[in-house]
User: Fold this.
Amino acid sequence: MLGKLLKYDLKYMIKNMSIFYILAIFFSVTSRIFLSLEQTIIVKIIGGISVGCMYAMVVNILINTMMRSWVRFRESIYKDEAYLTHTLPVTKNDIYDSKFLETLIFYVIGFIFIVLSLLITYYTKDRWLLLKGFIGTITTELDFNESLFILGFLTIIFLEVFNAIQCGFFGIILGHKKYNARLGYSILFGFMAYLISQSIVLLLMYVVGLFEPTIMDLFRSTILLDTKSFKLLVILSIILYIIIILLMRFICKKEFSKGVNIE
Assistant:
């Protein structure tokens, strides 16, 4: 049954997000074309507009993945659609897992389209070598593998934004336990949950720092990170965000299982 729930959630997201994916690729292609032409005044103007539209679609993919995930969560669990959702032979764990997986899947898809749009617009051999040289300068100083540096950086961003999305789920769950101003409370609780989750990450880093001097140096030194500290920071950040996400998922499911007040 989890598979069927997920299927309906994925259909909803495809219906609402596909237009942004298509437009992002379209404007990245047109931007690539105009940037490759002789840069007359009119070509520069049209090219600039096209690039601006491409960036607008990239931002829309990120924002709408978050917003649509929250809207879908609220509509299918607390609004009119909830009457059907809660009559299905499924557990509340299955319902929450469906929303969690749907968000994860479309966040990954959105991330891929964002990277793809930027590559289509800007990729050339010379620009790639320039970017690689810039990253290489940083990684050489830190004695860090280039691929692992990029992967680690993107993974941290991915986990941080996904954590924010799930904090929104938590806010909606708590907000809809109230009898009025549910949307306002949902935003407030979600924002507070995000701030608390970020504080917990810093607190856990500080606790690790009590046993690892290189991490403690982040809190009391203004000197740039050395190789060991940087590698440890990347690994620790990824581990802590995964822990926070799993912990928040557990808390959300626990609060959700206590009952639902349908509007």
Q: What stands out?
A: Residues 64 and 165 are 11 Å apart (CA to CA). The chain has a mean pLDDT of 82. The first helix runs from residue 2 to 36. DSSP finds nine helices and no strands in the chain.
